[in-house]
Automatic annotation (TrEMBL):
InterPro entries: GH, GH_1_N_CS, Glyco_hydro_1, Glyco_hydro_1_AS. The keyword Hydrolase applies. GO terms for molecular function: beta-glucosidase activity. Belongs to the glycosyl hydrolase 1 family. It comes from Terribacillus aidingensis. GO terms for cellular component: cytosol. This is 6-phospho-beta-glucosidase.
Length: 476
């Protein structure tokens, strides 16, 4: 018998801004992701260096069309159903519901789109797992209020939360508040819509914005529990254990501090209060969090589960000679681990780190976990016969699922596994299409050319077998 529990939620994960396209259709407002071109400008903007809050003429903006899921979702959901999906993680584009973010009344056309999307999923017995905010702040909130640096966004987000909970209470039972909330510290524009002016104290702004997001998340948790008592609502972080490069205690301290950058957010969302180490950090860095009366009480509304992405582990060192030898990995800087291989994009491949990370999170929080992103970005080629043979992806996923199985054997409570990008989509970090994750190939290149036709890859049939056996058969 499989060690994966009965009712395990097998599936895949996408984000509205990376698949939907139709970026100004149906009354949708402009979002921060709609300002991220492919190419060299992308990363500076994601880090908060923004000149104008509008698309730049002549640049290519992948999110504007993406893979046209907005018009093709029925076709794509049928393919997910063919694989046997039990769940699909999607996000709601905040600006489809409130185009500017601060309106009193929602956009009915946007609400209806997600009604139709959820109905289509449920028709195929696929459970919607919905992220409320996935890297797409309405641009109007950035222009008028300074985005999450401003406390007013808390009330706007609470209105948005109550609107979608009330609308979809009979269709959605799994929710998450902010996608990879810890990205606020690494890519502050994409994570929280933050734009910095020269001379500003960036850390002060980031942690004040983090406080506002944490308050908003807690209020959303309360609203969800009030409006949909039988639902589960979680938080979500970009996870990955950090190893000390050597047994030098200084390396261990560095690794611990790196982990705490991520744990900080989840400590508050899962435990209901600021951790003591954060208070020390604020003191040492002259950060003063402005709190309102009642904030401590609001934060006590804690999440039901911890959602996390896992792509790579990280390695920390304090040795200047070692620090020059770095590698990529879901934006997080890391020194190169000599024991581990890397992907085409320089991301460390560490299946055992997946098990370590799951154990680390469960030991810390003692709440159910949900693996909501994991996958391999790679260049896929279509053969002359029209096939995509991605055995390298199968090998990656097989080894990671073997380690997830070990984590379950360890006693880690895991609700489900939704691999990232079950269909090719726009890469969040690079904006590329050639960095593909899916079981389904989408005919589109980095320049936006292609038919958008869908092709089942070899991994499509492999994952179908995995789901049918509830993870018992992981063989290639």
């Amino acid at each position: 018998m499989s060690v994966f529990p009965e009712g395990f939620l097998w599936g895949g994960a996408v984000a509205a801004n990376q698949v939907e396209g139709a970026y100004r259709e149906g009354g949708k407002g402009l979002t921060t992701v709609d300002l991220l071109p492919i190419g060299e400008r992308r990363f500076p903007i994601m880090r908060g260096s923004v000149d104008k809050l509008e698309p730049i003429p002549g640049e290519n903006y992948p999110s504007h069309e993406a893979i046209d899921f907005y018009h093709r979702y029925k076709e794509d959901i049928a393919l997910f159903a063919e694989m046997g999906f039990k769940a699909l993680r999607v996000s709601i584009a905040w600006a489809r519901i409130f185009p500017q973010g601060d309106e009193a009344q929602p956009n009915e056309e946007g609400l209806q789109f997600y009604d139709d999307l959820f109905d289509e999923l449920l028709k195929h017995d696929i459970e919607p797992v919905v992220t409320m905010a996935h890297f797409d702040v309405p641009v109007h909130l950035v222009e008028k209020y300074g985005s999450w640096r401003n406390r007013e966004l808390v009330s706007f987000f609470e209105t948005y939360a109550k609107t979608i909970f009330s609308r979809y209470k009979d269709k959605v039972k799994y929710w998450m508040t902010f996608n990879e909330i810890n990205m606020l510290l690494h890519l502050p524009f994409i994570g929280a819509g933050l734009v910095f002016q020269e001379g500003e104290n960036k850390k002060q702004i980031q942690y004040q914005a983090a406080h506002h997001q944490l308050i908003a998340s807690a209020l959303a948790v309360k609203a969800c529990h009030d409006i949909i008592p039988d639902a589960k609502i979680g938080c979500m972080l970009a996870a990955g254990a950090t190893y000390p490069y050597t047994s030098n205690p200084a390396d261990y301290m560095e690794a611990m501090d790196r982990d705490r950058d991520s744990f900080f957010f989840i400590d508050v969302q899962a435990r209901g209060a600021y951790p003591s180490y954060a208070k020390r950090f604020f003191k040492d860095n002259n950060i003063e969090i402005k709190m309102e009366s009642g904030d401590d009480e609001i934060l006590r509304h804690t999440v039901d589960y911890i959602g996390f992405s896992y792509y790579a582990s990280r390695t920390a060192s304090t040795d200047p000679e070692v620090l020059g030898n770095t590698t990529a990995g879901n934006v997080f800087g890391s020194v190169e681990n000599p024991y581990l291989p890397k992907s085409e994009w320089g991301w460390t491949i560490d299946p055992t780190g997946f098990r370590i990370t799951a154990n680390q999170l469960y030991d810390r929080y003692q709440k159910p976990l949900f693996v909501v992103e994991n996958g391999l970005g790679a260049v896929d080629k279509v053969t002359d016969e029209g096939e995509v043979k991605d055995n390298y992806r199968i090998d990656y996923l097989q080894k990671h699922l073997e380690q997830l199985r070990e984590a379950i054997e360890d006693g880690v409570d895991i609700l489900g596994y939704t691999s990232w990008g079950p269909i090719d989509l726009v890469s969040a970090s690079t904006g590329e299409m050639k960095k593909r994750y899916g079981y389904i190939y989408v005919d589109k290149d980095n320049d936006g050319n292609g038919s958008l036709n869908r092709i089942r890859k070899s991994s499509f049939y492999w994952y179908k077998k995995v789901i049918a056996s509830n993870g018992e058969d992981l063989s290639n």
